[in-house]
Automatic annotation (TrEMBL):
Residues 75-345 form the Orn/DAP/Arg decarboxylase 2 N-terminal domain. Its EC number is 4.1.1.19. This is Arginine decarboxylase. Its cofactor is pyridoxal 5'-phosphate; Mg(2+). It catalyses: L-arginine + H(+) = agmatine + CO2. One of its GO terms (biological process) is response to cold. The chain holds residues 48 to 685 of 1053 of the full protein. GO terms for molecular function: arginine decarboxylase activity.
Length: 638
């Protein structure tokens, strides 16, 4: 566990159990030993074939833990409640979840349900997000906020006003100055009194990757002068009482509470000025930014790490607002936050399999046929070989490596010229590997091929270099003997992971031929988990090479013999699904190919059509386990 720093980034939800497997602690610090869920047991239950009592789902696999989601929400709420109480703050905290972080129906529904006792709401940034938020909040607490952010057209604004008519506590946050006119006009037309917020561009800047939207030149929000003209416009339309909320967003992954205090303090000043100008201010919405300590270092000096916990975060905010409001003698506002990453990151684990490792095989000296190589070498290459032998006798490693490398390069040139055969080139490669091994040049990392698309499942690694903790979910009681990097299934050189937490360029991994994990066809299974990826990754993933979304299961803690129950299971996108996403029509494609089989394959046509139907129905990933569910071959058609 120490090798992978699980206690640092995983606490309080992930640990290693006595069996050497990752244990999920669904209630965080208050999980008792018998409530821990063995992740390997979950994986077996989900992937074992149906006749063996499993669900027969294919990898990759997302395992969701709603109990963890509930614990995150409650922990955030209680951090703010404690800060409010400890600092004598005279109002309360009322958060919203920005659905963009993970729009999955069950995630959003769970958040609304779990957050209902403390009026937790939702934030939307586009029309479909607003539609889903409206629908989910119909079952939520009537006081829960529905914050409408993002760029808006007349249709978006009409929809948000409709939400108010439906008695949802909706706030239209102006991101651009022009939006105010639309809101005034449409609300008059629809006879709805809107509640309006303003998103302010703060001067405070967050210098990390996620801070590019902050500062005066940020993409979103209103400058000081734009805020003043919106106030004027609303005043002129006798609607200044509608302006009730101030919003800002410093950027995701705010690294320190010092930056937070600075930004929140600035925003609280704007808030108090809006009060002075006559707006009916009630809520300060501090946006997202509550960070995750992905590498467990608590250093706060990169996008990977933050130097505070929930309690420090909440208390820095409450205090910064209180100080400004007390100084200006204004009523303490309701504090809203839009934490996404901090709420959903921990709740799911992506599990994928390593299928094989590519390691250089070094021949023994007596396997290298030196006369065979020599007969084809140029004069210069022969001299390199003699110099190499000479240096080896003298045990001069540096010179050895120099001549081995030069010999190899000359042989590559000879091969390109056509004067060296492929067998001789292979023998020279072997000689080079042997020399580097003998003089102790460290063995390069092995490439573990994984049954995954990084573009689909870990898109932030590819696009912005975001690093997540990746660890084997079992065999923690065996010392890993190998250093590995991960290479995915896509035909793309960017489809690899060669950066890991702790500034590492390889990951300690076990030999695939190792003992545990449950063998299939003589091959042992090796499962890796990517943790803390519950936010953004599912929403951002694409279908590069037409590898679609993973299978997804929901797992709840239960007091039964296994300590867990799988309450929902959904196979990943099939080949047909991903083809449809690119406007192909799988049913028509199947018919075309079936007719072709009938035309060309005679008696075999029916069996071939059945096999074709299976190909459309199955997931695009490799079918590694004979136990997994290949769709039954169906001769009746698609
Ligand atoms: N609110 C707004 C306006 C955002 O742009 C974002 C994300 O960047 C969030 C909330 C969520 O931020 P985080 O995931 O850091 O909590």
């Amino acid at each position: 566990a120490a090798l992978y720093r699980i206690d640092s980034w995983g606490a309080p939800y992930f640990a290693v159990n006595d069996a050497g497997n990752i244990a999920v602690r669904p209630y965080g610090a208050s999980t008792s030993a018998h409530q821990e869920i063995d992740l390997l047991e979950v994986v077996k239950k989900v992937s074992d074939a149906k006749p063996a009592g499993g669900l027969g789902l294919q990898f990759p696999l997302i395992v969701r833990f709603p109990d963890v989601l509930k614990n995150r929400l409650e922990s955030l709420q209680s951090a703010f409640e404690s800060a409010v109480q400890a600092l004598g703050y005279d109002s309360y905290y009322q958060g919203v979840y920005p659905v963009k972080c993970n729009q999955n129906r069950f995630v959003v529904e769970d958040i609304v349900r779990f957050g209902s006792p403390f009026r937790f709401g939702l934030e939307a940034g586009s029309k479909p997000e607003l539609l889903l938020a409206m629908n989910c909040l119909c079952k939520g607490n009537p006081e829960a906020l529905l914050i409408c952010n993002g760029f808006k057209d007349a249709e978006y604004i009409s929809l948000a006003l409709l939400a108010r008519k439906l008695a949802l506590n909706t706030v239209i946050v102006l991101e651009q100055e022009d939006e105010v006119k639309l809101v005034i006009d449409i609300s008059k037309k629809l006879s709805v009194r809107p509640v309006i917020g303003i998103r302010a561009k703060l001067r405070t800047r967050h210098s990390g990757h996620f801070g590019s939207t902050s500062g005066e030149k940020g993409k979103f929000g209103l400058t000081t002068n734009q805020i003043l003209s919106v106030v004027k416009e609303l005043h002129g339309s006798r609607m200044l009482d509608c302006l009730q909320l101030l919003h800002f967003h410093i950027g995701s992954q705010i690294p320190s509470t010092a930056l937070l205090r600075d930004g929140v303090g600035e925003a609280a000043q704007i808030y108090s000025e809006l009060v002075r100008l006559g707006a009916n201010m009630k809520v300060i919405d501090i946006g997202g930014g509550l960070g995750i300590d992905y590498d467990g270092s608590k250093s706060g000096n990169s996008d990977l790490s933050v130097s505070y916990g929930l309690e420090e975060y909440a208390s820095a905010i409450v205090n910064a607002i209180r100080v400004v409001c007390d100084r200006k003698s204004i009523k303490h506002p309701i504090i809203c936050s839009e934490s996404g990453r901090a709420i959903v990151s921990h709740h799911s684990v992506l599990i994928f399999e390593a299928m094989g490792a590519v390691a250089p095989t070094t021949p023994a000296m007596n396997q290298i046929n030196i006369p065979f190589i020599m007969e084809a070498l140029s004069e210069d290459a022969r001299v390199d070989y003699w110099n190499l032998s000479d240096a080896a006798m003298r045990q001069d490693n540096e010179t050895c490596l120099f001549y081995a490398d030069q010999l190899k390069q000359r042989c590559v040139e000879q091969f390109k010229d056509g004067t060296l055969g492929i067998e001789q080139l292979g023998a020279v490669d072997g000689l080079f590997d042997l020399v580097t091994k003998m003089i102790g040049v460290s063995e390069p990392a092995r490439t573990y091929l994984v049954n995954l698309s990084i573009f689909t499942s870990i898109p932030d690694f590819w696009s912005i270099g975001q690093i997540f903790p990746i660890v084997p979910i079992h065999r923690m009681d065996e010392r890993p003997a190998v250093k590995g990097v991960l290479s995915d299934l896509t035909c793309d050189s960017d489809g690899k992971i060669d950066k890991f937490i702790g500034d590492k360029t390889s990951l300690p991994l076990h030999e695939l031929s190792g003992s545990s994990g449950g063998g299939v066809n003589g091959r042992s299974r090796y499962y890796l988990g990517m943790f803390l990826g519950g936010a953004y990754e599912e929403a951002l993933g694409g279908v590069h090479n037409l590898f679609g979304g993973p299978s997804v299961v929901t797992v709840l803690q239960s007091d039964g013999p296994q300590s867990f129950a799988v309450t929902r299971a959904m196979p990943g996108s099939s080949c047909g699904d991903v083809l449809r996403a690119m406007q192909h029509e799988p049913e028509l494609m199947f018919d075309t190919l079936k007719h072709r089989a009938e035309e060309f394959c005679g008696f075999d046509a029916a069996a071939l059509s059945g096999s074709l139907a299976g190909s459309f129905h199955n997931m695009p990933y490799l079918e590694l386990a004979s136990s997994c569910s290949m769709t039954a071959i169906n001769n009746d058609g698609f």
